Amino acid sequence: MIAKTTIGSSFLGAINYGAGYSLDGKEIEGKSELLLLHNVVSFDPLGIALEMQQEAAGSRCKRPVWHSSLSWKPGENPTKEQMIAAANQYCTKMGADPGDHQIAVYQHHDKPHKHIHIYINRVPTDGSKALETSHNYARNVRICKEITQELGFGKVEKLQEGKLRRVDENQKEAQKFVNLAIREAFKKKCSSLDDLERRLKEKAIECKFTMEEGKLKYSSYSYHGVPIKGQDVGFTAKELQRKLDINIGMHLSHAHQSKEADQREHPSKYLR
């Protein structure tokens, strides 16, 4: 699980996004689901935003909106109860006690991985000091690690900045998903293109591989109808071939060692 936090001034804009409303004010059907509310009476986005805005109005805090997204790795499927537990723990560990702060949590269904959006009014209901925002990045890393261990979630492998090429905005999700899927396949000792393609198809990723003289020369993918080149997901055809060759070598070495061990233990099986 990883978290990303932004601080803002408009509750209405933030809550509307959480509730799945487009910029023109129309609800995007099926995008969002309200999971949790603390210290808020309303259930509609406008009512929630107005209540939070009213609570913050008497404070000197100029940017009372705390918005954090929590994301689980592709393929991990926490239940609603687990996501709610993670949200409550996150708020508490960040210093926003659910008993003292207004909080709204939405689950979004617009990405292939499970993720939620947490909205906190930094101004507590008792009028005390606003929620601290310093060192958010470091705190997010630490707190997500703690919640991952406490609730048994897996870690999301972060893409290293600068390692991937720039792609169009509509390709970014496919780029990330395919990259992580390929990395996971190689961690599981994938040693052939057929095996790689099978593993990726299990994740709804379509593959296209072009061979020349027994070597891979070109690769491309498609995820949910979004096409993307192999070089754009961090794995050129040359890099894929190199990793496959390494795994094939390891597989053959292991098989040879296993045969030698079996020969030593059961020599009569190999006598002609």
How would you portray this structure in words?
- By secondary structure, this protein is α+β, with helices and mostly antiparallel strands.
- It folds into two domains: 2-151, BirA Bifunctional Protein, domain 2; 169-270, no CATH class.
- It is built from seven helices and eight strands, in the order E-H-E-H-E-H-E-E-H-H-H-E-E-E-H.
- The strands form two sheets. It has a five-stranded antiparallel β-sheet with strand order 1-3-5-4-2, with helices on both faces.
- A hairpin with a 2-residue loop joins strand 6 (205-212) and strand 7.
Major β-sheet annotation: 5 strands, antiparallel
Order of helices and strands: EHEHEHEEHHHEEEH
Poorly predicted runs of 5 or more residues: 252-257
Principal-axis shape: elongated
Fraction of residues in β-strands: 15-25%
> Could you estimate the helical fraction of the residues in percent?
25-40%
Report a brief summary of the structure.
The chain folds into 2 domains: 2-151, 2-Layer Sandwich (BirA Bifunctional Protein, domain 2), CATH 3.30.930.30; 169-270, no CATH class. The protein contains 7 helices and 8 strands. The chain has helices at residues 11-18, 45-57, 80-94, 136-151, 172-187, 193-201, 237-265; strands spanning 2-8, 32-38, 65-71, 103-108, 115-121, 205-212, 215-223, 226-229.
